[in-house]
Amino acid sequence: MPEQDSILEGLFQEEERLTEKQKKIIMAAIESFSEKGYAATSTSEIAKKAGVAEGTIFRHYKTKKDLLMGIVSPMMAKLIAPFVIKDLYKVINHKYEHFEDFLRAMMENRIAFLKNNMPLIRILIQEIPFHPELKEQFKEHIAIKVFERFVTLAEYYQKKGQIIDIPAYSVVRMTFTSIFGFLIARYLILPEADWDDKKEIELTIQFIMHGLSAKD
Amino acid sequence: MPEQDSILEGLFQEEERLTEKQKKIIMAAIESFSEKGYAATSTSEIAKKAGVAEGTIFRHYKTKKDLLMGIVSPMMAKLIAPFVIKDLYKVINHKYEHFEDFLRAMMENRIAFLKNNMPLIRILIQEIPFHPELKEQFKEHIAIKVFERFVTLAEYYQKKGQIIDIPAYSVVRMTFTSIFGFLIARYLILPEADWDDKKEIELTIQFIMHGLSAKD
Amino acid sequence: MPEQDSILEGLFQEEERLTEKQKKIIMAAIESFSEKGYAATSTSEIAKKAGVAEGTIFRHYKTKKDLLMGIVSPMMAKLIAPFVIKDLYKVINHKYEHFEDFLRAMMENRIAFLKNNMPLIRILIQEIPFHPELKEQFKEHIAIKVFERFVTLAEYYQKKGQIIDIPAYSVVRMTFTSIFGFLIARYLILPEADWDDKKEIELTIQFIMHGLSAKD
Amino acid sequence: MPEQDSILEGLFQEEERLTEKQKKIIMAAIESFSEKGYAATSTSEIAKKAGVAEGTIFRHYKTKKDLLMGIVSPMMAKLIAPFVIKDLYKVINHKYEHFEDFLRAMMENRIAFLKNNMPLIRILIQEIPFHPELKEQFKEHIAIKVFERFVTLAEYYQKKGQIIDIPAYSVVRMTFTSIFGFLIARYLILPEADWDDKKEIELTIQFIMHGLSAKD
DNA sequence: GATGAATGAGTGTTCATTCAT
DNA sequence: TATGAATGAACACTCATTCAT
């Protein structure tokens, strides 16, 4: 199941119209935006890093902000695609009989995704607070579409008696929180620490399972 | 117990040497930095908002970065003080016999703190990725000092048989994650949504308690 | 023998890569630096005088100091070239049998040079005290290379019995001093006075010749 | 006859109204102006070096330029005084029977003066090109008054048959040139070189004497 | 007399963007 | 399509100077 999980490569592959220079611009921009932030990165710096003339950037993107959006927007779609389409489908088709299996599959999948797209994710997280359009896009795509699907899923597992009977959106929130809490600590706050990934993932899953178990 | 929980007021109170203008500069800077980010905020904008001449800013802070640090650094100290000193003391003195009581007290305390210092917290969170010095300060003060104390606490409750026997730092990570996950969702991602705070806090506490319960 | 003796024109000719605007910037900078001094000249003033945008200056010269160096450095080379190469050669090839002939030729040559490059020379003289790099360059190129050649020349004429037998470097110092003393009085201190150049030059030469004559 | 030859001390002595702070300001200004030039020296820098508040400078000198003038102007007077009054008198009273004696006395006197007042002299030389008022003062006091006296002296020695019969002002120019050429080389251009002062002075005197000798 | 906070015009420099080539 | 010279507004920061204390 070697899914294409690098947004960048996916982007470059699909859009054949991208020139070599354009690809270099995108890669340079991602590197700089992710390290220094959008506002602190100059277009001339991107041009230099990409090995193109300053003017070339503006041939492809009318403004600097367009460049940011050209990088971040496709990511939004990619970010939600798996949830929306594939995984939900699998669950409904009884692929994941137990919530725990689903949880485990999802964590593995999203960790792989994070690893492959770290700089892009960083940009998204860092820039959302400063760009209302991004915030809006994010809310629409993630906070609503994805959240909705997960609420449906939560209700599915609740009906099966696997999850405690509290509001489904709280279930989702706490699940997300625990998973992303781990990912953030692991990859953003202390990436250089010595992590036993397997064990931490298992502990996190157990924590969620106990926390939401219907047995109690 | 009306503790002084606004960093700003605390700052203004303690340091009597602060001019009226200096206070205005700090307030204006906090507002702008928090809304648009440090890099995207110009000193002239801060001056205008503060109602002072641009030169006045540089009389008090040698550089724009100094201004940022002058705002963020005191916060670091304030941020950890309660954990480090008061709460730990209370726990040791049997004020919180049960982990659940401690959890509830801490959440209430930190929610109040967050409400009173939102813009400052935003700045801290938003700027940490771009300023290595900040990152270092944060790691030193928060990630080490605070984390350490909590690990000690976790071990305390583990010995009392209230918490499951897994590595204490994993206990702390998951507790933090659940609490801050709620706070971030509540105050940063969806502040305008209609939250039933009491209920969500209780659910979060129950989630953590079940997740870490030793009974299982 | 209409040698190209204007540094500026030489510069513009050789370096074909110079834009029209760049030439204007250089000319404006020379004018202002020479009149008001480097430190008291603003880049905006230069831009205005050159009829370009202020940013244009910094496209060609990274800093204001770079602009100064870009103007002054080529002059150093030009300043010493004739001494180092041509004239010494001529002397050795018996072109100037007598010290007096050499002296006369040199004065004429350097006076023409001075006239053609007055503003540049002014900048050099005025700025050397404030810029250690300039001072270093000057010492290396002029005070050492040129001085050395002249010492050799002085020894040559001493051997021929035309010059008194005192340390050669003292001979050079006093010759230089007398010549530049005239040039400074003539062109820098009292340029507006009514000078009989031919006569003064002749007097100066006679003064030096008598002062250094071996006859006594 | 240990004449008071330090302008600064003379200034501080005469003008009793100078406060301690004022003296410190003057000393700090001299140091900075001489090293970095008037234009490149900031008043705040002077204040810091002098250990006074920024405003204090402007209590005593209305503008920064006033400060420069307050330093440089008294020097002008001091610079010419000895020539104008004392030395001329001595010559007329047959103190210096021979031009050579006069020359030797003058060089010794002026070298002592230079050594005691180097920073002030540097300021004068460096700033004259940029300040028309200074230039004017200089011309009036030095170039005219002093020059005039010397012309008279030159004519005196010419009449006595000790100096060649060329225009007296040329005599003066060449004498000045040779003396100041030595002083400039000695104290400004190569102060760190290893000079045999006695010998160089003697050589310079001999050079002038031969150069202007009437014998030839 | 002395202070130092305050000023706002001015500094050198960077910026995103344009456009003729 | 790609270039890079050119722009001028904006930037962070400095300056000489003022003035209430």
UniProtKB/TrEMBL annotation, chains A, B, C, D:
Domain HTH tetR-type: residue ranges: 19-79
Question: PROSITE patterns under this entry?
Answer: HTH_TETR_2 (PS50977)
Which residues, as ranges, make up the DNA-binding region of this protein?
Answer: 42-61
Do you know which Gene3D superfamilies this protein is assigned to? Homeodomain-like (1.10.10.60), Tetracycline Repressor, domain 2 (1.10.357.10)
| Keyword DNA-binding attached | yes
InterPro entries attached to this UniProt entry: Homeodomain-like_sf, HTH-type_Tx_Regulator, HTH_TetR, Tet_transcr_reg_TetR-rel_C_sf
| Residue stretches spanning the membrane | none
Read off the PANTHER family from this record. ACREF/ENVCD OPERON REPRESSOR-RELATED, ACREF_ENVCD OPERON REPRESSOR-RELATED
- List the protein's name: TetR/AcrR family transcriptional regulator
